[in-house]
Design a protein that fits this description.
Distance between the termini: 38 Å
Number of strands: 7
Order of helices and strands: HEEEHEHEEE
Number of helices: 3
Helix content: 10-25%
Radius of gyration: 14 Å
Largest sheet: 7 strands, mixed
Length: 119
């Protein structure tokens, strides 16, 4: 990748709903993106600034995205989790689906996860 824009600009970028968590100096601490088509949603671009991980920012972003899915009566939610984040998503009802794979963009090991109902 030549720059960070290459990581986020994909077929879903323009049509997605984006959440950005800012601190009181307007510095980005976390992001998440939601794309909904009919009754299927894809959560992507979940990223938390490393020094601010484990402080509840990811939880806030994910819960907001899940609320939007609930309001729009989404039946299935998919995401690709870094291997290190699988346990985090499992706490919110996501289940591992399929085999681990290396991201085409970064080479980082990911796991497809799916959620079909609300807690």
């Amino acid at each position: 990748m030549q720059n960070s824009a290459d990581l986020i600009n994909d077929a879903f970028e323009e049509k997605g709903s984006h959440l950005v968590y800012l601190n009181d100096q307007d510095r980005v601490l976390g992001t998440g993106r939601l794309n909904i088509e009919n009754t299927k949603a894809i959560i992507s671009q979940m990223a938390i600034d490393f020094p601010n991980q484990k402080k509840g920012i990811g939880k806030l972003i994910l819960l907001e995205l899940l609320q939007e899915c609930k309001e729009k009566e989404v039946a299935v939610i998919e995401l690709s989790a870094r291997k290190t984040a699988i346990a985090f998503y499992e706490k919110y009802g996501f289940k591992v689906d399929g085999k681990e794979y290396a991201s085409k963009k970064t080479g980082i090991i990911h796991q497809r996860m799916v959620r079909t109902s609300f807690l």
